[in-house]
């Protein structure tokens, strides 16, 4: 299928918009508003909901989680209005925005919640499979990183087998590889037995 110049313009605009949305550091913003300072100085130094939870505030962590999901979901929904190619570009753009935000020197979060929002808008059955995988692994082993990487591995496999309409399995694979790569230090700590487990409602010293 030939893509016209107008289509390329729409695809590019959607990708840029998605990147900007994805790069909004809600965890950093909410931690400041909650009086916890720079979330990058706490725990793992990550700006995502898991690290916000280490402040001891479940409400701030939940707010971060919801907003990080939305900043992946909304751009992809908008992208679908311009076609499958624009939705695909939005999916990758939003994920890259969260992980490599220009405002933070391209040092962002791990991309799990945002990628979840992306998949929810891109292909909800795929998001459901990934979410159930994450929940099962988190409940079994209490490691957020292990749950995230497992879900990231399952997502492209499901996309390849199920072939949801309009969904590009290669795009899902790219997103999954980026998320997995972003967790490389967590996997190293996990292998050494030094990775922090998920703890609810308890502030870490």
Describe this structure in words.
- The chain has 205 residues and is mainly alpha-helical.
- It has one domain (5-192).
- It has ten helices and no strands.
- The chain is globular.
- The N and C termini lie far apart (57 Å).
- The model has no long low-confidence stretch (mean pLDDT 92).
TL;DR?
With 205 residues, the protein is mainly alpha-helical.
Number of strands: 0
Largest sheet: number of strands, sense, barrel closure: none
Roughly what percent helix?
A: 55-70%
Q: Let me know the average pLDDT.
A: 92
What order do the helices and strands follow? HHHHHHHHHH
Structural class: mainly alpha
Strand content: under 5%
Radius of gyration: 17 Å
Q: How many angstroms does the end-to-end distance come to?
A: 57 Å
Please, how many domains? Answer: 1
What count of helical segments does DSSP give?
10
Low-confidence regions: none
Blueprint (SSEs and pairs):
Blueprint: H1 5-22, H2 26-33, H3 49-52, H4 58-80, H5 84-99, H6 112-122, H7 124-141, H8 144-162, H9 169-182, H10 184-192
Helix pairs in contact: 1-4, 1-5, 2-4, 4-5, 4-6, 5-6, 5-9, 6-7, 7-8, 8-9
Defining traits:
68% helix; 205 residues; mainly alpha
């Amino acid at each position: 299928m030939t893509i016209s110049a107008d289509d390329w313009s729409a695809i590019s605009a959607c990708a840029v918009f998605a990147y900007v949305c994805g790069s909004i550091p809600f965890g950093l913003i909410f931690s400041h508003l909650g009086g916890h300072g720079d979330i990058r100085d706490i725990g793992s130094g990550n700006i995502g909901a898991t690290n916000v939870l280490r402040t001891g505030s479940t409400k701030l962590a939940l707010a971060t989680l919801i907003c990080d999901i939305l900043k992946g979901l909304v751009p992809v929904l908008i992208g679908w209005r311009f076609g499958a190619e624009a939705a695909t570009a939005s999916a990758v753009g939003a994920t890259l925005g969260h992980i490599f935000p220009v405002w933070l020197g391209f040092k962002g979060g791990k991309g799990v919640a945002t990628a979840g929002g992306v998949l929810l808008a891109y292909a909800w059955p795929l998001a459901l499979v990934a979410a159930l995988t994450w929940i099962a692994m988190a409940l079994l082993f209490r490691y957020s990183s292990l749950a995230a990487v497992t879900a990231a591995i399952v997502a492209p496999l499901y996309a390849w087998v199920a072939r949801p309409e309009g969904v590009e399995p290669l795009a899902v694979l790219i997103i999954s590889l980026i998320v997995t790569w972003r967790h490389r230090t967590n996997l190293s700590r996990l292998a050494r037995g030094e990775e922090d487990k998920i703890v609810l409602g308890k502030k870490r010293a």
